[in-house]
Amino acid sequence: MYFFRSISDDVRMAQFEFRKQTKAKRLVLGSFLSCMAVILQGAGELLPGIGYFVSPFATLPILIGAMLSFQMGVLSYVLTILLLFILFPSELVIFPFTTGLLGIGIGAAFSFFKKRLTIISIGATCLTLGMMILLYIFHFPVLGSAVSDSYSFHTAGSIFLFSFLYSLLWVEIGLFFFKRIKSSSS
Asked: Where does the chain cross the membrane (predicted)?
């Protein structure tokens, strides 16, 4: 079955090769991925309308970084938050709890687990927790004004179902881009 299949060893081989790189190259790559994440996250403000369709792709640089090295993923995540604080403060609420957290969660899961279901579930859990923190603790209308900020099991279940499907999509996107990057660097 699809969910119980193991992810190929391409990620582990790339992590091994990545560790052979000099520290300077790893820092430059982490910084580049962070800059890409900032540009993609800020697209909603730079290009109103179409930019809102581009901004979810800020997950990809963080995901790729965390797939290569959890340490570099966290570095890129923190650097992206700092750059957003300077360049796009309004995006600072969304990125750390949704887009970036999903990338870190899935990337870390790729480092520690091999089964798709486990990787997808960890990404979904991270995204669900981030959205629920925004919605129920900070009372930020991350889902719009149609969803109440008072806790409901129905809303929490719906958030988790959405997060699971969204995480499934990002696992496949991450694998697709990872294989593309690997084949172009060979």
From this structure: 27-44, 50-67, 72-88, 94-113, 120-139, 159-178
Do the beta carbons of residue 107 and residue 62 sit within 8 Å? Answer: yes
Domains along the chain with CATH numbers:
2-181 (1.10.1760)
CA gap 114, 29 in Å, rounded: 25
Tokens of residue 27, six digits: 């820092």
Burial degree of 115 (CB within 10 A; 0-12, 13-18, 19+): middle
Q: What is the pLDDT of residues 31-58, one digit of tens each?
A: 999 999 999 999 988 888 898 899 999 9
* H-type alpha helices, 23-93: 23-41, 43-46, 51-54, 59-68, 70-87
The Cα 172–Cα 176 span in angstroms is 6
Predicted TM-score (pTM) above 0.85: yes
d(CA 163, CA 28): 31
Q: Are 53 and 44 in contact (CB under 8 A)?
A: no
